[in-house]
Amino acid sequence: MERRDKEILVIGGGVTGAAIAYDLALRGFKVQVVERGSLGAGTSGRTHGLLHSGCRYIADVEVARECYEENVILRRIAPFLFEKNGGLFIAITEDDLKYKDFFLKQCERARIPVREVSREEALRLEPNLNPELKAAVEVPDGTFDPLKVILSFAASAKKYGAEFRPYNEVVGFRVSDGRIVGVRVLDKVRVREYELTPDFIINATGAWADKVARLAGVRVPVKPSPGVMVALDGRIGYMVFNRLNKPGDGDIIVHHRGTSVVGTTSWVVEDPDIVRAPQDHVELMIKRGSELAPIVSKLRVKAVYVSSRPLIGEGAATTGREVSRSFAILDHSRDGIENFASIIGGKFTTARLMAEKMGDFVAERLGVSVRSKTSELPMSPYWLYFE
Q: Which residue pairs from 316-322 have beta carbons closer than 8 angstroms and sit at least 24 positions apart in sequence?
């Protein structure tokens, strides 16, 4: 692999930052990743662990197709990371049933392979589903352990020379003549400040992207949208349970290892560092989860946690569900800083694709002609990150 003398700094050690580091290191760049906490300490380490089939966002065919295509790629390049258990979208009410025809037509448009199953077959596959269900559609969902996926991207990046610095927080930028010429970093382990001088800086901090960008005097139109998830003490199913309707509160149950996670609510906040799990949201998750599977109401709650989605947009949305699940790369040369870019939006499932597009952007900006290979090569196992 041809080595390049350009140094790239990735800010953010979630799945997007780790995937970007892998893509750029594989292209031959010198890559460093700084993260203010541990890897995955932000949004991507607190997901419910759904490998999207795309069907949840089927109203937006392009987003749905992206999710399904990345689902297939990830299963191929890292089969050891994913539980290939599939999912069921089930109709409980007449309103759910009315959504079915639209759902099936959109899946066909997005070229996502799904099949209708009878009520009897659905209950045979998953006995804990609501026995009053009126329809069911099988979809190619999967599940994963978020930290293992993040560490696999990081291990893959390290294989090609990338360096990761957890507990190192960016606290300022030195800007001169339209460029960032220095990045001030607080090392929380050694309790010292130091400066990095990369050629290009990528802001991959998700819901925190605007807070980081403001340090350089620019803005990022990110809309932090927290959601509450409830982990139950016991696994109640094998396949992912989804409500056959537009995305809403408490309409999915994801099962992995010895637990089932009911999710999620959605609202919008100004600061992703100031978020609490409202008790009424927890109660709503139990109520709505019980509509999918009545056994939910009988299980002990093992844990409650909140994850802030980095949605795109400034508008008047209040719940976050009005905002696109697509992603955007923001070129801050338009704001007067030529060696700085941010990436926001997207899904955990589309992190590899987001990294590929960011890699294309950086390579073009730095005058390098080399394509991404992350969709072709096997990923390194997560345990190699620690070697």
A: 317/223, 317/268, 318/267, 318/268, 319/225, 319/266, 319/267, 319/268, 320/223, 320/225, 320/227, 320/266, 320/267, 320/268, 321/247, 321/248, 321/266
Give CA angle at 196 (192, 200), nearest 5°. Answer: 150
d(CA 69, CA 206): 22
Mapped onto helix, strand or coil, the DSSP state of residue 220 is: coil
- Environment class of residue 304 by beta-carbon count within 10 Å: exposed (0-12), middle (13-18) or buried (19+)? middle
Give the tokens for residue 76. Answer: 């191929």
In which element (H, E) is residue 105 found?
Answer: helix 94-109
Contact 252, 88 (CB under 8 A): no
Residue-level pLDDT at 321 = 31
CA 312 vs CA 35, 45, 119, 321: distances in Å: 22, 20, 38, 11
Structure-token pair, residue 188: 């929380």
0.85 exceeded by pTM:
yes
Residue with tokens 């997207």: 346
Residue 35 in contact with residue 28, Cβ under 8 Å? no
Place of tokens 């339209």: 178
Are 229 and 277 in contact, with CB atoms under 8 Å apart?
Answer: no
Burial class (CB in 10 A: 0-12, 13-18, 19+), 120: exposed
DSSP for 291-344 reads HH-GGGGGSPEEEEEEEEEEEE--SS-SSSTTS---EEEEEGGGGT-TTEEEEE
DSSP 244: S
The per-residue pLDDT for 32 is 98
Contact 353, 374 (CB under 8 A): no
pLDDT of residue 33: 98
Q: Indicate the helix (H) or strand (E) that contains 202.
A: strand 200-203
Please state, as a whole number, how many other Cβ atoms lie within 10 Å of the Cβ of residue 151: 25
Strand partners, 89: 137, 242
Quick one: tokens of 287? 């109520």
- Quick count: other Cβ atoms within 10 Å of Cβ 72? 13
* 10-residue averages of pLDDT along the chain (387 residues): 82 98 97 97 92 94 95 97 95 96 97 97 98 97 96 98 98 97 98 98 97 97 94 96 94 94 92 93 96 97 93 54 64 96 95 96 93 97 95
